[in-house]
Every structure is written in structure tokens, then in C-alpha cells.
Amino acid sequence: MTRRPADGRAGEGQPQHPRLRLNEAIHQPVRLSILALLANARQVDFAFLRDSLALKDANLSQHLSALESLGYVTVEKVFERKRPRTWVSLSPTGRTAFEEYLGTLQEIVGAPLDTTSEG
């Protein structure tokens, strides 16, 4: 039976567990929810995001700022009929990061357990 170090890393020559590749910025539940919603739309209104995800304005703004600083979303503020409106969309970088994240999750949940190494 092969033993792993106490910190969970694979030994030399052994592949790392896919969980170690999870993007922590996306793994946060609110950010994951934002990206999942944006992945299925060209752009989404701030109010729609807020209401769909049951968030407060300030909370959504904080998460959007974090995602925007990573280049994962674009935020566009416009005036429509003299009223401010904020549109949010998934950037190409964000789409790639989200797809990689989903692929890593699939590796984690889709891989059968290796029972051959149990003693």
C-alpha cells in the first residue's frame, strides 16, 4: 500500500489529486453561482444576478469586483432612459477558467475509487 504524506500531496512520481487543481477563486459558492449563471448568457443585468442568487447589492458587488480583478467577468455601466444599469458578462478568460474548473470537478466526481491499493 502506498502512503501519502500527511499534507495530502502525492509522493514523487505520483500524480496529484485533482482537488489540488481546483481554482479557489471560483470554488467559493457565490462566485461559482455567478459564473454558472453567466456561462449560459451573453450578458446579465446586475439586478437579475442579485435576485437570482438571493444576494444583497453590496455582497454581489464585492464578488463581481473580485472576479473582474481576475479578468473573469466584464462589468459595463450604462445609462438607459436616464437610469443607470450594470451589465455583467463572462470574459473569454473567465469562460476558460470556468470550463477548467468544471473539468477538474468532473475528474473528482467521475473517477471510480481505486480499491486495488487498499490492504
Characterise the protein shown here.
The chain is an alpha+beta fold and 119 residues long. It has one domain (22-106): Arc Repressor Mutant, subunit A (Orthogonal Bundle). It has helices at 24-27, 29-38, 46-52, 57-69, 92-110; strands at residues 44-45, 73-80, 83-90. The chain has a three-stranded antiparallel β-sheet. The longest helix has 19 residues, at 92-110. The radius of gyration is 19 Å and the shape is elongated.
**What is the approximate shape?**
elongated
How far apart the termini lie comes to 6 Å
Strand segment tally: 3
Low-confidence stretches are 1-6
CATH class: Mainly Alpha
Q: Might you state the CATH topology name?
A: Arc Repressor Mutant, subunit A
CATH superfamily: Winged helix-like DNA-binding domain superfamily/Winged helix DNA-binding domain
| Strand/helix succession | HHEHHEEH
How much strand content do the residues show?
A: 15-25%
Using the CA coordinates, give the radius of gyration: 19 Å
What is the helix fraction of residues, given as a range?
Answer: 40-55%
Number of helices: 5
What structural category arises from helix and sheet content?
alpha+beta
Q: What is the CATH architecture assignment?
A: Orthogonal Bundle
Q: Please state how the strands of the largest beta sheet are arranged side by side.
A: 1-3-2
The total number of structural domains is: 1
Biggest sheet features: 3 strands, antiparallel
Mean pLDDT: 87
Question: Can you tag this structure with a few keywords?
Answer:
119 residues, alpha+beta, Arc Repressor Mutant, subunit A, three-stranded antiparallel beta sheet, 5 helices, disordered N terminus
